[in-house]
Amino acid sequence: MKAIVIRHGAFGDAIMASCVLPYLDNDGYEITFYTNEKGAMVLKNNPRISEFVMHNSDIPIGEELDAEWEKQSEGYDKVVNLTGSMENELLFAYHQPLYSKTLRERREYVNGRNYFDYHLEKAGYTPNGNSVLPEIYFSKAERNKAKSLRNKHKGMFIITWALTGSAIHKIYRYFEQTMTTFLSKHKDAMLVTVGDHTSKLLTFQHPRCINTMLWEMPFREAMLLAGSSDLVVGPETGILIASSAFDVPKICLRTHSGADQLTKHWINDYSIQAPVSCSPCHLLHKYKDVWRDKCQLDDDKDFPMPACTNHKQEDVLNKMEEVYALTKEGRYQKQKN
To answer: Contact at 8 Å (CB) between 282 and 110?
Structure first.
């Protein structure tokens, strides 16, 4: 039997879609994954995938896209199309009907549905207690590179912080203040930042801080770094989604998603919801300045941001201290991957 999984999107979308692969594999399907370069890169080495079918970035839309999917699905016994399963059905962007609805109406529509569970439902499966987490596989050479970093900084409490995501609310305004406070208190702690070119604006210099942008560190290396760290922190980004494939403690600074939607199944999860009444809003602010008409803003006069980006420093630091203490007590067994 043959199955094709279709998922257009960014890094995190492909990672999340991988949660359906064990179910298909266990049912005896030979799996083809139809995605873009980003998706194929993050799912590389997955033994459940027999073949990748690649599309370029200029995918068609509307009826042409439906025709493309139908063409790619020919000859398969099962078709699992996960494109838009989050961003069109549980998170809503400008121009979608639910974007203009009230917060209450959006919450009632989403009704606590979990992203990972929903992927499985779209594939025709029910979680019933089995794993619903993503799967990421690394080569021996990649794993050795991660071991080299750990050995180089042996005894250090390594924090990987994902600085930004794909939308205005996927950022933490008080990142620098929070980390300088933590590094000042713990001389055995070090920070590694990951992000795209815009993230560099948030970085700061410190003798125990390594700033690595994605042009310096490919996304696969950033995922592996996260999985082999002692703690991963950041907004709702691909790196945080990737960290859910590992038992590394993680603090996701949730904004537009709630615990039920995103972190419900995560292992060693210490995530924090934004302390504003509109979070989770289930809105995806992908378009420039549209969010200004929808978001509750903070009180910064020079550059007001969505209020959900201002998680309290005390809350973030308390969670970090909790993880630090448990780690030093040897309470975590590192997962081998």
So the answer is: yes
